[in-house]
Sequence to fold (105 residues):
Amino acid sequence: MLPEKHVFVCIANRPPVVGPSCGGSGSPAVIERLQFAILEHSLMDKVRVNGCTCLGPCESGVNMVVYPEGVMYSKVTPEDVPEIVQSHLIGGTPVERLRSSSQSA
Ligand code: FES
Fold:
């Protein structure tokens, strides 16, 4: 069964000489917090979380994108996860303050 929402979190680790990357900016902790929240809210059948490679705005990591809406969030920290889960994944309203500036609304 397909989930209602699919969250892709960038876990890319670029060579430091190239610049920052989401893996080095804390994406493992963001994924861990997301998975915990999904269990906490019994969303296992509705939301799927996957790590992915580079989404583009590497200097603004941690980046993640939520489908089917295609909403990208940047500079996400573990502390932001409860708000994203409650507002967007459960309530259907994206968290505007975290939307990527590289994404036109
Ligand atoms: S490394 Fe995450 S967007 Fe490029």
